[in-house]
Write the structure tokens for this entry.
Amino acid sequence: MTDGFMVKIFDGYWLPWLQSVWPDPTSWHYFLFVGGNPAADTCFEAFGMLTSGLFVSIGVVLPAVFIFYLMMTILEDSGYLPPRLAVLMDSVLHRIGLHGYAIVPTILGLGCNVPAVTATRILETKKQRFIMMTLIALFIPCGGAAGYHDECAARQPDGSGDALPCYRLWHLWVCLKQGDPGGENPEILVDVPPLYHWPVKEYVAKKLWNRTKGFLKEAVPFVLFGVLVVNLLYLGGA
């Protein structure tokens, strides 16, 4: 979807339109909002708030997150997620200080780490939330993080990129040792529905819209702000 549809919209229409209507390609505001390269052919190369910022968050991440939220909503409304899956995973997750409901932020992290970290609020104790956020940051391969780690490994021709999993394990051990050693690990009390049922399309559409809207409100401003900060630092000579 990203390569076949979004790239054509952003690179074929959005970027040329911005480059044609912006008043002064040599101005500082062009550098911040459109990008430092007036001859850029793609939004990703332009690196402006309205080019790379919107392309990464809406053109790359949003389609994957949208499909992920759709599948997750269908599983929820069918009665499988979270009660049945939480019960199945409870004994496994208890071994690392969590309980079955931690599977929800784990699954969310496969799509995007932003809603996954937000979903840790369903865990009861501070220690559980800390463990879960550490696992999300280090081990759950959201699309952006997986691409970043693949790029880092590809830039190490001597094979030193293979040390990354060992570094993750060491960093996880340090983080967990620094966490609150106390705290309880409460059991879950969940009502498992007796039967599966077909999702109601109106409820699926409403949940999907609310979750997608929440992602846009929480994630997109951070991406745009990050691009803005990098460009300001570049203009300042950093």
